[in-house]
Amino acid sequence: MEEEQSEFRHWDQLPPDVLGLIFTNLTLQELLTVIPCVCKSWSEAVTGPYCWQDIDLDEWSCRCQPHQLDRMLRMLVTRSSGSLCNLHVSGLLNDSIFSFITENAGSLRVLRVPHSKINDSIVEQTAPRLSTVTFLDLSYCPKIGAQAIEAIGKHCKLLVTLCRNMYFLDSAGKDEPEDEANAIAATMPRLKHLELGFHNISTECVLNIISSCPQLEHLDINGCLTVNRDLKFFKEKYPKLKIVGPHVEKVFKEYENLDFTIIDQDFYDDDFFESMMEEIAMELAE
Length: 286
Fold this sequence. Notes:
Layout: H1 2-6, H2 16-23, H3 28-33, H4 40-47, E1 54-56, H5 58-61, H6 66-80, E2 86-88, H7 95-103, E3 110-112, H8 120-126, E4 135-137, H9 146-155, E5 161-163, H10 168-172, H11 179-187, E6 193-195, H12 203-212, E7 218-220, H13 231-237, E8 242-244, H14 249-256, H15 270-285
Parallel strand pairs: 1-2, 2-3, 3-4, 4-5, 5-6, 6-7, 7-8
Protein name: F-box protein FBW2
Domain F-box: 8-55
InterPro entries: F-box_dom, Leu-rich_rpt, LRR_dom_sf
């Protein structure tokens, strides 16, 4: 009986990498406010890199205060200690925080930063740091254009998925609406999945992308209203390529399937956030 019991270890005796793997099933709120209070080994595990190789702040970032997002990102990315593999966050407010992310992107494979206020120059400067990225989402980032896309294409040679969906008004306001698509065709031959929702591009531009990206398996041109709407044309010419669009029905269907994790509303409260950050700082100082 004693031999059988010796095969099992108490949870507080598990190594940090095992605890980190287990804790990835918890919510952000639980990781930051519950786990550190259980015991010393759990607190050490949650402040180490094993819990923060995958950071998903998408839902929280859509509802938090702007200053909270910057502080939270810097804390969690720092905790990852260069092991960050997957980051999903919406609405980066400035170039500084994007640059900080890329400084810690040595292991990064998936980067999703939709709705962010970053511009061409910062993407051009930091693109060489994103050489390991295979999945990139820059959808609804109105301040970037063809220069940023070209820089990504030149430096992110492993990129196979690019999401660059737009809002109709942002796309319609571009002086050279096809420049981004042409930059993709010129610099991203290894793409397998491409999303260009609501870009103001022509059928010829789409054909240029398809011919320049021979490995392309999925092309989303939803809302690209100037593209030939006869899908038979594309299916006959490229039978192995799945094309979504150019109709707009898909946009409205997606909203019906949105599923949000329930998070305590206090977690978004400014006073609660400040209190939580103070407690975390005290724990790190001990």
